[in-house]
Amino acid sequence: MNELLLQTIVDKLNKVDEGIRQINSATPQMPDYTEQLKSVGTSLEQIKADVTGMPERIKFPTTAIYKLSEYLQINNDLLKRPPIREVKHHHHVNAGVIVSACLFLLLALVCVWLFNTRSMLQAYTARDIKYRYIQLQAGKQLRPFLSEIDSLYRAHPQVFRDSVEQWEEQRQQIASMLVEAQEKEEEAIRLRKKAGKIR
User: Fold this and answer.
1) How far apart are the C-alpha atoms of 55 and 60, rounded to whole Å?
2) Euclidean distance between the first and the last CA atom of the chain, given in angstroms as a whole number
3) What DSSP state is assigned to residue 131?
4) In its keyword annotation, does this UniProt entry include Transmembrane (predicted)?
5) pLDDT of residue 68
6) Distance CA 62, CA 69 (A)
7) How many whole angstroms separate alpha carbon 42 and alpha carbon 46?
């Protein structure tokens, strides 16, 4: 039986070989791509080596990301609590400028005071000269009157000054009333002349 089985297997193999020959003769001859496949194989091996070595070359920067997240957290906290700004005004005027300004104002006030004092002194000097002139030029009847005026002034200077000022005001009022009366008289004369022309 073994021989029969062996014979059958040999026959079958012969038929398979015959079929393969027929298929090979029926199909055109295929080109040989073994060299290209070898180069593709080596390229694939190189790519595989590069891909396996990639994690070492492209490391994820965990420490830098950790620091960045800390900085972002600090910034977020600062943005939630904005700082309060206090505006402080600094005046850059030193003491020398202030002292100079005060001295200038003091000098101006002293100059104004001296000018007023000089004006008053000139007025008093002029009045004194006029009074002395009246005393020298006055006749015998005017000298006792001037002496009486001097004694009245020495006795009550404020009352004497007030009475003189009041008398001057009255004379000024009388003078203004006389000027007004003269203007009205001139107006009346003008109106009479105008009325005479109308008749």
Assistant:
1) 8
2) 190
3) H
4) yes
5) 87
6) 10
7) 6
160 & 198 share domain: yes
Establish if 169 belongs to a structural domain: yes
Residues 172 and 133 grouped into a single domain: no
Q: How much is the pTM?
A: 0.33
Tens digits of residue pLDDT in 47-63? 888 777 776 667 767 78
Contact 160, 152 (CB under 8 A): yes
Q: For residue 119, is it within any domain?
A: yes
The range of the structural domain enclosing residue 171 comes to 156-199
Domain end marker among 139, 165, 190: 139
Query: How remote is the C-alpha of 36 from its chain's centroid?
Result: 79
d(CA 89, CA 85): 13
Number of compact structural domains in the chain: 2
Closest CA to 143 of 135, 152, 151: 135
Query: Residue 112 pLDDT > 90, yes or no?
Result: yes
Joined together, the tokens standing for residue 193 give: 């002349």
CA 91 to chain centre: 14
Q: Is residue 36 part of a domain?
A: no
Q: What is the pLDDT of residues 68-110, one digit of tens each?
A: 889 888 888 888 887 778 888 777 778 888 899 999 999 999 9
In whole angstroms, give the CA distance from residue 81 to residue 101.
46
Q: How many CB atoms lie within 10 A of CB 138?
A: 13
Residue 130 falls inside a structural domain: yes
